[in-house]
């Protein structure tokens, strides 16, 4: 018997899907978990980086006196398993072997697929093992680089997740009888993946399959834990402990889960700069909330007083957003995101639209803009059905020498007959959300962010950005 903990490592929260299975199958084992959310996703990084980061996590786990290490990350397994195994004298397990073995046993049609990160697909680790075991099995490998950012941002229940899963899995529909979830993050999207692939396709969870191997290995080396009272699992993250706790608490069903933030590398991880092309600090704060835990340092034009003022002279949201993002990216050489947004009222043919900010004159107050709009609608749109509108936003991410990434989002509603509510800004007090009776200025800050055009666009950006940067 050996009651030392088992160490789990992952690029973020994905390895929790393996831990969940461990807690179910082997309740006498204690867990030490390290997730490198700050540097996730690993899947689009190069081999040397993945190897270095994995070793940092291995050394962290060794400092906690673990009896075994489980690389609960397919990307780390594909790149670093052999190296780590060779150099340590405790057992080290990856997640690829077990998933590959399971699919060979379970497929009937011999048409199977694996979805994984780009690095795992590139490594051909699944292909190699499956072909060695059964040359007649035909494996299709598909990289789904948008899945990990989606899970890391805890967006699994949001409508964007369904859309991303549908779009990503389209090439596999109707072609296979078994699908390996070749990234430990993916079981968190399992209901959506199953719905998209159809009930007849069996999903193989590599992580869950791995727990059987942990059990076999512990028995073989006589290091299983014994039944005891005080088992204290410990979780560490390099990212935001609150997000980690939210995902882990829900997924593992543990109420008082202990999560600590750690700084893994001696030399700080390279923080990437993201310039938001605005002087509006409110917008910068929204970016900061989402991106600083992903290893970005957020700057605005206020940090670069020497940069020119950029006039919004285009006649479309995209035109203005490009003008801001591309001009600043060209001058600074950095990653820049620009956005342009506004309120589009149907009966006014989409006005005030791109002119929302200056609707009532060159430098109007929000009140002046709102009263002009109410005045315009007073004569033409008396009934609520004629007062439909939507907020629109277009985000453009730009880097010199790269085709820009463009993201749009809408937030539908209607125009009220009088302002209502204290929160928000701009036209919020006269924007009735959806078909309801509350204006955007009556929603609490978090709720507005969850629904709004800007909130939706920022979350889409968070999912699209890593794979765009990698192109
Ligand atoms: O271009 P920057 O410097 O970022 O600042 P801006 O005020 O022009 O910012 P936008 O182009 O994004 O927005 C234009 C106007 O649209 C309105 N607007 C945009 N989003 C809104 C929201 O969430 N709630 C209420 N009004 C909004 C508001 O009147 C804004 O001044
Ligand atoms: Mg504007």
From TrEMBL:
Residues at the active site: 73 (proton donor/acceptor), 183 (proton donor/acceptor), 340 (proton acceptor)
Keyword Repeat: no
Cofactors: Mg(2+)
Residue positions binding substrate: 10-11, 42-43, 74-75, 184-185, 278-283, 341, 425-428, 448, 453-454
This protein's pathway: Cell wall biogenesis; peptidoglycan biosynthesis
Note on how the cofactor is bound: Binds 1 Mg(2+) ion per subunit.
Biological process terms in GO annotation: cell wall organization; nucleotide metabolic process; peptidoglycan biosynthetic process; purine nucleoside triphosphate catabolic process; regulation of cell shape
Known role: Pyrophosphatase that catalyzes the hydrolysis of nucleoside triphosphates to their monophosphate derivatives, with a high preference for the non-canonical purine nucleotides XTP (xanthosine triphosphate), dITP (deoxyinosine triphosphate) and ITP. Seems to function as a house-cleaning enzyme that removes non-canonical purine nucleotides from the nucleotide pool, thus preventing their incorporation into DNA/RNA and avoiding chromosomal lesions. Provides the (R)-glutamate required for cell wall biosynthesis.
HAMAP family: Glu_racemase, Non_canon_purine_NTPase
Self-association state and partner proteins as the record states: Homodimer.
Family: Belongs to the HAM1 NTPase family. Belongs to the aspartate/glutamate racemases family.
Protein name per UniProt: Multifunctional fusion protein
Species of the source: Lactococcus termiticola
């Amino acid at each position: 018997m050996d009651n030392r903990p088992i160490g789990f490592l992952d690029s973020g929260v994905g390895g929790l899907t393996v831990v969940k299975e461990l807690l179910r199958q082997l309740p006498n084992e204690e867990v030490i978990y390290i997730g490198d959310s700050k540097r996730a996703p690993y899947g689009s990084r190069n081999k040397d980086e993945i190897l270095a980061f994995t070793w940092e996590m291995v050394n962290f786990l060794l400092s906690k006196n673990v009896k075994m290490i489980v690389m609960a990350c397919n990307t780390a397994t594909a790149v670093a398993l052999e190296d780590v195994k060779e150099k340590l004298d405790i057992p080290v397990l990856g997640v690829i072997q077990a998933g590959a073995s399971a699919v060979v046993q379970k497929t009937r049609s011999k048409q199977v697929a694996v979805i994984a990160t780009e690095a795992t697909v590139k490594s051909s680790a699944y292909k190699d093992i499956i072909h060695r075991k059964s040359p007649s099995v035909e494996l299709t490998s598909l990289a789904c680089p948008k899945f990990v950012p989606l899970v890391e941002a805890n967006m699994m229940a949001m409508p964007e997740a369904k859309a991303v899963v549908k779009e990503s899995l389209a090439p596999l529909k109707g072609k296979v009888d078994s699908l390996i979830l070749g990234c430990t993050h993916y079981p968190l999207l399992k209901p959506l993946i199953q719905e998209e692939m159809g009930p007849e396709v069996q999903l193989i969870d590599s992580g869950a399959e791995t727990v059987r191997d942990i059990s076999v290995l512990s028995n073989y080396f006589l290091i299983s834990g014994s039944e005891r009272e005080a088992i204290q699992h410990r979780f560490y993250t390099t990212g935001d402990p609150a997000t980690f706790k939210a995902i882990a608490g829900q997924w593992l069903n543990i109420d008082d889960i202990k999560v600590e933030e750690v700084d893994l590398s001696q030399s700080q991880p390279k923080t990437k700069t993201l310039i938001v092309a605005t002087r509006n600090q409110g917008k910068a704060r929204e970016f900061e909330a989402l991106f600083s835990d992903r290893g970005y340092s957020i700057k605005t034009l206020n940090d670069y007083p020497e940069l020119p003022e950029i006039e919004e002279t285009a006649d479309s949201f995209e035109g203005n957003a490009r003008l801001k993002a591309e001009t600043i990216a060209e001058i600074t050489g950095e990653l820049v995101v620009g956005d342009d947004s506004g309120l589009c009222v149907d009966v006014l043919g989409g006005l005030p639209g791109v002119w929302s900010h200056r609707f009532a004159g060159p430098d109007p107050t929000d009140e002046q803009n709102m009263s002009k709009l109410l005045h315009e609608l007073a004569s033409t749109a008396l009934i609520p059905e004629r007062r439909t509108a939507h907020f629109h936003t277009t985000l453009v991410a730009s880097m010199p020498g790269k085709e820009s990434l463009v993201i749009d989002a809408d937030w539908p509603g209607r125009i009220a007959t009088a302002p209502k509510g204290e929160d928000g800004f701009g036209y919020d007090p006269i924007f009735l959300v959806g078909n309801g009776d509350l204006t955007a200025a009556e929603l609490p800050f978090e709720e507005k962010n969850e629904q709004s055009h800007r909130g939706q666009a920022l979350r889409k950006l968070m999912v699209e950005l890593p794979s765009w940067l990698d192109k």
